[in-house]
Amino acid sequence: MASITIRNLDEDIKQRLRVRAAEHGRSMEEEARDILRRVMTGTGSPRDLAAAIRARVSPGARADVELPAREPVREPAQLGRQAR
Length: 84
Description:
84 residues; mainly alpha
């Protein structure tokens, strides 16, 4: 396999790559390889917004909300003149 050297990499980019690699439990070099592999093979992030949101929100991060019981519909108010 070939190797490359990246010169003049912004310190901010380097720091973000370091953090991203740590989040994924791998080296910066492996993280960079993975990023390049995904970009070059077109298997990166989903292109539509709904798929991107679903990909970011893991099932474990969702909150189960208990909905209140439904009540019967009340009679509508009578508007207008009433007999006295």
